[in-house]
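Morning!

This is the sequence you dropped in the shared folder:
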Amino acid sequence: MEESVQRPDSERLDAPPGAVERPTFIDYTLRLTGAPSLGQLVAVAVATAVYTVLSWLSTLLPSGIPLVSSIFPAIGFGIPFAMWFGGWAFVIAYIGNFVGAGLLAPTPLPLPLALLFGTVDLIQLGLPMILYRTLAKRFGVNPIGKDVYTVKGFIFFILCGALPNNIIGGLYGNFLLVQTGVAPSSTFLIGWFGWSLGNIIVTLIIGSILLKTLGPVIERFGLTIRNAFS
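The structure's back. Tokens below.
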């Protein structure tokens, strides 16, 4: 894959006087091609460990509803991880939630329930990654959210990186808790509202900061996953 990227506002030597290059983006796709480098695998492993620990720590912030935290800071890290590491987002999401928020929770879930509960973050982390990799280029925004603090970039982040995944994930997560008897049915609506709202706020604050500040660094060192898994 072509690794070079044209820099914004840089002039080409063969361009007419006064001509300015338009910025271009590295292409991020969901193609199944090649294998990840050792550095990329290490980065994914570190992200998985960080997300697992943060998910566990987040469960220590109770809301009064079993397994629903008053605030879940981990999601602010998980969504940037997902956008940077492509298909590996599903690995990071599942292990982080299954282990960190399931097995290691203050009131640990039984193994079968923890295995099921781990699927919640496949939505919360996987959906933004898919939407960015399929739609960002079409709408002229950066596919790993480096332009999140522009008007267009922030609106796209709200619509594709914060709202749908957290609303659907909150709905699915609370549905599982109620249906498996972990939480009473009377907590469903308030649990869904609190889960979704808290995650949206954390995503917009922490997630956007990480995308803007660390995204360019991760990309510069060649650690981002540019296809599905490589």
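Headline: The longest helix spans residues 151-179.

More detail when I'm at my desk.
O.
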